[in-house]
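Hi everyone, sorry if this is the wrong subforum. Our group has a chain we'd like a structural model of before ordering constructs, and none of us has done structure prediction before. Sequence below.
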Amino acid sequence: LSQMARQTGMEPEAQNVMVLGAAAHDSFLELFDRIMKFIFVFAGFCIAIVVCGLAWTAALRLRDGLVEWRRLGGRSEARWLTRIARRRRKEAADLMGTRLRAFRNPFAGPAGARDGNETVRYLWEAMTAWCADAGCPCPPDQTPREFVAGQPRPLAGFEARARFIADLFTYSEFSGQPLPASVMPELERFWTDLQAHAARGL
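Answer:
Right subforum, don't worry. Here is the predicted structure as tokens:
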């Protein structure tokens, strides 16, 4: 082609055509390379969006699953704890009051209680039997006042009456003096209050 161009006098035009062809070829290769890069980048961006969407959906499902599992687990745990509490209450109810039930009303019958000292001792033993039923027996090394001052759990709400019988029992045991008959109505009220308190505790 070069020889023909020289012979025909068209060599400059042929060179221009070849230069233009080479430039067009290079431009096409560069454009094609840029298009392919854009396609790869766009495809990677789309894939990243899809992966993020799938990961977000999976995270939401996992969160919902954990929430549901916790809800069901909490409900199961609550039911389990409720069953345990009911069983313990039943066991406590079966045990509580067994000792106290052995004590009969000392004021029942036509004669009723007459000896104040014996009645006070009987009522103190009935109250400590109730405490023992509830799992808080009176330690043998404690005085009645010390036991009541320790605020055992079964006597919650019954502290004033418990102090009354503890003081009266201490006086009865260590004074050597008989209790007057005038105290008997108060002792009978104590017995009634003790029964009511034990019934609430059951």
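For your construct planning: The two ends are 119 Å apart (CA to CA). The chain is about 75% helix and 0% strand.
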